Automatic annotation (TrEMBL):
Gene3D superfamilies found in the cross-reference section: dinb family like domain (1.20.120.450)
One Pfam family it belongs to: MST
This protein's name: DUF664 domain-containing protein
NCBIfam families, A to Z: MST_Rv0443
Species of origin: Streptomyces chisholmiae
Highest taxon, organism lineage: Bacteria
Length: 172
């Protein structure tokens, strides 16, 4: 594996570690708690960041999403279409996620992480410059798309960790 892809694996490893550290030990009430009327709860944040990673990496690898292929969609039993990732969700849709079991969230994230790392192990450094989306100006390369997923996921796992801190310190 090339140093560039090793860095990407390290970034996704850090996301997985933070997801586990943030979710482990939480009660269902904490998973579903909203610290403000429109705030996203930990469960939704982790579900969303995992759905984004699953959706984007599946598209890049030209494969089915873990969400549908491994029937995580059925295990969660959400009132959303299978292709939903959380982008554009209203406050009511965020609330509809409820409080998924912490182990379910961690399990789904781990399954997506394993597929992500497997995909990253197969790309070559030259692949990172390949244009994967020409709807943007400038066109989006594979490397840029992967970094955007890392950025999105780190932002949301940081938000989830912050909410955990608020809840555990009696401020939520």
């Amino acid at each position: 594996m090339h140093a560039s892809t090793e860095l990407l694996v390290d970034a996704f490893d850090r996301i997985r570690e933070e997801v586990e550290a943030t979710v482990t030990g939480l009660t269902p009430e904490e998973i579903g708690a909203r610290v403000g009327p429109e705030a996203n709860p930990i469960g939704w944040l982790v579900w969303h960041l995992t759905r984004v990673q699953d959706d984007h990496l599946a598209e890049l690898a030209d494969r089915a999403q873990v969400w549908t292929r491994d029937r995580w969609v059925d295990r969660f039993g959400l009132p959303f279409p299978p292709e939903a990732t959380g982008f554009g969700h209203s406050s009511a849709e965020v609330a509809a996620l409820g409080a998924p079991d912490p182990e379910l969230l961690i399990g789904y994230h781990q399954a997506v992480h394993e597929r992500t790392v497997g995909y990253l192990g197969k790309i070559r450094v030259g692949d990172l410059a390949e244009v994967v989306d020409d709807r943007w100006n400038p066109p989006v390369t594979l490397g840029v798309r992967l970094i955007s997923v890392v950025a999105e996921d780190l932002q949301h796992v940081g938000q989830a960790a912050y909410v955990r801190g608020l809840l555990r310190n009696g401020q939520g």
